[in-house]
Design brief:
CATH architecture of the largest domain in chain A: Alpha-Beta Barrel
CATH topology of the largest domain in chain A: TIM Barrel
Largest sheet of chain A: 8 strands, mixed
Helix content of chain A: 25-40%
CATH superfamily of the largest domain in chain A: Alanine racemase
Largest interface: A-B, 74 and 74 residues
Oligomer: homodimer
């Protein structure tokens, strides 16, 4: 097989959820948007449901629809983008709970689906999604009377525990919601780690479940092994790959592996990335191609059959650093050509 | 619907192939690897087959299998990664033609599938895929006697017409193949534009079909419109998005659109990207989130229902420049959440 193998450890995923759940005072939900952070919302959702998750969060109604088909009736599925035009049918048929972001969305929801559950998303300072304080104060009494199942907001700087924005958003959120009957949620993974004052009635971790920072105690969930297509000798002074960007400083042995930027191995990482043959690091040389990477395996005493990008020696965050991005983007970029190996 | 709409103009795709075919002396194939450069190999393959393409190129046997199911028997499907361990079954069942990259692959192929068509990939200096000159001279007579349907190589610097590597690779390729009976191919899109000496018996354009550089005369194939979820007033001095990276220099009106790096809107483009409301450019502000981007729409006299990233005003290459990459990666990163609108 030419396909690389992406192994997904659903047991590790569940242990990460359990560890975050142990930190949380109230309920612990799970964010499975962007196809379960690239790992597959249906399999991730089913594993977490079996572990006890009763509240899931997705980005769009379409994602909610797919998740509902996978997990069946029972758990709540909250939709961050709220109730958009055209969302009424999936909201009703898949029993999704929109997190209403504006007065416009609230009007659309109560007109189209009177009595259908909803939550409220408030903007506490990130200026991205949710009702503004002024907007909220105008509709709060009407909204609360309708019994929202959740009132939530999202932190902009939770990955930086000392950032003043955290306390500022916490105060804003409390000012908008203290004294109300409804259940409240403010914290994703970063907010969960900020401590109890940020937890309210529900935390909703995402990246931490999948083994990424800022949850430093997360266990790794993904392993990615790339098969070697061929290995060649390259003489000192010869070049490798597009644009001749790498010139061999000495005679070298170069492996070409199946896996490139079309598989989410972000082109920007180029020769800053390292693959592993067992415990031996092997640097990527030259540019990442669409389907291929070239790797210096001169230090090995054998030609490897495969090389590992993520796993025991490198986390999603190490790879992200090589690519100049964050672990979240490494995960959500993982492509469709991998043979996916689910481990429980 | 919360989904963004990715419109794919299959008529434009076909016109690009026809334009490149008009430049080529011999046969003009088509590269549809990486799921047809992100646009969908089945739909792209069927459209090109109807236009007259008889030779397709994919990266892996698995991709060949999917393409064969879409286009049926008849056209040749060449596999760049050659005949890997485990590929025998799909090679036989989907009638794929491996481009053998090494003596190891040649031995595997003739042992597993004697009499089954194959091509040869030669390395003319890129040091990525294909037999080296020494390897080739050792097996050339045996290989040619088995009647390869194609002997090919790939250019490392064809996007730079003045690069000395082009003439060097052309000379290497001719030295390895002149006088042989088999059909030959050296040029992808860039090589096709280098002129007739690079064309041999078949050109095999990829990126040019999909509207990307270096084919400057390509017509655009993709349009991407992102729906607006909500629009808010942001006061001078307020911040927007993760990490508070953007501070409003004046009172502003900010739209939040559905579409983020999980949709392939590469995080690195950040606030270097621009969306369009009709003819009016609207800058992205703050960080690109997983599912969302925030856009300054202050200059508009209305709140837009959607904003366009790619289309009449911006090509894949313009967007690539904002992200510090190439159009190829923008295309192959396009995600699965889009509503795909096929135009013929």
């Amino acid at each position: 097989m030419t396909s690389a193998t992406l192994s997904i450890d659903l047991g590790a995923l569940v242990r990460n959820w359990q560890a975050l759940d142990a930190l949380s005072e109230g309920e612990t939900g799970a964010v499975v948007k962007a196809n379960g952070y690239g790992l597959g919302a249906p399999v991730v959702g089913r594993a977490l449901m079996r572990a006890g998750v009763r509240s899931f969060f997705v980005a769009t109604a379409e994602e909610g629809n797919i998740l509902r088909a996978a997990i069946g009736q029972g758990p709540d599925i909250y939709v961050f983008s709220g109730h958009m035009a055209g969302d009424t049918k999936p909201m009703r048929e898949a029993a999704l709970t929109p997190l209403l972001n504006s007065v416009d969305q609230m009007l659309r929801h109560v007109e189209a689906l009177p009595g259908h559950p909803f939550g409220i998303q408030l903007d506490s300072g990130m200026n991205r999604l949710g009702m503004e304080p002024g907007e909220w104060s105008a509709v709060r009494d009407i909204a609360v009377a309708q019994g929202p199942t959740l009132i939530m907001s999202h932190l902009a700087c939770a990955d930086e525990p000392d950032h003043a924005m955290n306390a500022h958003q916490l105060a804003e959120f409390r000012a908008m919601t203290d004294g109300l009957e409804a259940r409240r949620s403010l914290a994703a993974t970063g907010g969960t780690l900020l401590g109890r004052p940020y937890h309210f009635d529900m935390t909703r971790p995402g990246i931490g479940l999948y083994g990424g920072l800022p949850f430093v105690d997360a266990v790794p969930v993904v392993t990615l092994d790339l098969p070697v297509i061929q290995v060649r000798d390259v003489m000192q002074g010869e070049t490798v790959g597009y644009g001749n960007t790498w010139t061999a400083p000495r005679d070298a042995r170069i492996a070409t592996v199946s896996g490139g930027y079309a598989d989410g191995l972000i082109r920007a990482m180029g020769s800053k990335a390292t693959l592993f043959a067992g415990d031996v690091p092997c640097p990527v040389v030259g540019r990442v191609s669409m389907d291929l990477m070239t790797v210096d395996v001169t230090e090995l005493d054998h030609d490897p059959a495969e090389l590992q990008l993520m796993g025991r020696h490198q986390s999603v965050d190490t790879v992200a650093e090589a690519a100049g991005t964050i672990g979240y983007e490494i995960l959500t970029s993982l492509g469709l050509r991998y043979a996916r190996n689910l481990m429980t």
